[in-house]
Amino acid sequence: MNTNNTICKGAIEKLFLKPFSSLNFDEKKNIIELGRPTPKLPDLTTISKNYVRTFKYEYYSTYKWLSGCKKTNKLYCWPCVIFSREENVWTKYGFNDLNSFHHLKSLHEASKNHIQCLIDLTKFGKIRIDTCLSEAFRKKYRKT
Question: The organism sits in which domain of life (predicted)?
Answer without folding.
Answer: Eukaryota
